[in-house]
Amino acid sequence: MSDHISEDLALILTALDQDDPERRAALAHAAACSACARLLERSASVLSLIDAQQADVKVDPRLKARVLASVDRLEAQGAGTRWEPYALAFGALLSIALGLLDLRLRWGLFPARAPLCFMWQMMGALLSLAGAGIWARSWAWRSSPLRPAVVAMGGALIGQLWLRVRCPTHDAPLHVLTFHVSTVLVAALLGYLLARSTWQSQR
Amino acid sequence: MKVRTADRPKPALANRGAATTDDGAAEALMAAYAAGDRGAWEPLFDRLAPRLLGFFQRSLRDPALAEDHVQATFVEMHRVRRSYPPGTPVRRWVFTIAARVRVNDASCLDRSGPCAATRATPPTVPGESARDRQVRQAIDALASSERSIIHLHRFERMTFEEIAGVLGSTEAAVRREALQAYHRLRERLWTLGDDGERP
Question: Above 80 in pLDDT, residue A85?
């Protein structure tokens, strides 16, 4: 660099990375030019003022606790996703198998019975969710939203078992598949949505 | 006449873009954390959180939002910890995640949006000298992306190449934006360099 350093560029040249060719050329020039050396010196002084703005940042212990809780939850959630989908698939198959146990060649949807069947199964699902909420809150609610879905599905399956006694049309395959099995799936979906809304409201 | 660029803090200057002993320790901790050692989390947090908080405070100018971003960065870091390439400088890797977290915050995407518009710089900070206030206000007057670059360049001692890697940009683009920022800082602070005082 044979030209003099302009006042406009002095700060930028001084701020450049140490091995930047433009910076090195400016330094080489300034070594033999006192006016440019003064400019770079003044630039270094301005940069020192900027560097002095680096504050000693203190992290609030509450932030640390908050982050740790989030990481723990994420870890539990990650661990939880390993088995819940399988449990849900198994629950759905079990529900179908229960329906097939009493299979007779009896045709008909019997929709008039459906509300009562739905009520028994949903009662099972809600009791399971309530029980898990009371006795296993951290296990059921603070890990994965799929876990409450499994809990609700389990309750609906118990309800389906109870319907083998209570429902006079439990041997009609169309009724069982349309109402009993689908209610098990609906219960799982409701458990999942309930858990998700709870999580979102806690954020 | 010898140029007194040595007025800048020497150890920090020497560390720009170079791995330090501290980085080596952080790399070992990060490797342990990636391998599943949860005991490494706390020392990693203690090392990285103040740096991340400083970065977010500077670029967002909102203490509460900065804390939220620190939390989001550590959550994301935990999520992708197994993808940490051993031997990679932790600081650069973590700041890459932090920059992504910041970009993903839709409310801050638009520089003229709520992040920039409603979060005004505090006019005074207790115990701050008039000169320091002038410097702080000059930095705060920069655009959010310029503040991020200046922060990484001056306070994290990253090179333009490293900053480009962190921000997912090109070295030329980062350099151009940094030069604009330094130009604006010069306009506001040049007279302060004339009094011969050193902080």
Answer: yes
Q: How far apart are CA B9 and CA B11, in angstroms?
A: 6
Best CA proximity match to B91, nearest among B8, B22, B11, B14 = B22
| Dihedral over alpha carbons A40, A46, A47, A52 (to 10 degrees) | 150
pLDDT score, position A60 = 92
Nearest CA to A85 among A149, A138, A128, A155?
A: A149
Query: Which amino acid belongs to residue B23?
Result: D
Query: Structural domain boundaries of chain A?
Result: 7-51, 61-202
**Which chain A residues are within 8 Å of B6, Cβ to Cβ?**
44
d(CA B97, CA B10): 29
CB atoms within 10 A of CB B14: 11
Total Cβ atoms within 10 A of residue B2? 10
Binary contact (A17, B159; C-beta < 8 A): yes
Per residue in B21-67, pLDDT (tens digit) is 467 788 889 988 888 888 899 999 999 999 999 999 888 888 888 99
**Tens digits of per-residue pLDDT, A103-127?**
776 778 888 889 999 999 999 999 9
For residue B64, give the chain A residue with the closest CA: A63
Is the alpha carbon torsion for B35, B36, B37, B40 positive or negative? positive
d(CA B125, CA B176): 31
Q: Does domain B10-194 have CATH number 1.20.140.160?
A: yes
- Chain A residues in contact with B150 by the CB 8 A cut-off are 50
Domain coordinates of chain B in residue numbers?
A: 10-194
Which residue would you say has higher pLDDT here, A188 or B13?
A188
Residues 49-78 (B) with a CB less than 8 A from some CB of A:
49-51, 53-54, 57, 67, 70-71, 74-75, 78
First to last CA, chain B: 23
Nearest alpha-carbon partner for B132 in A11, A43, A15, A51: A51
CA distance A164 to A186: 19
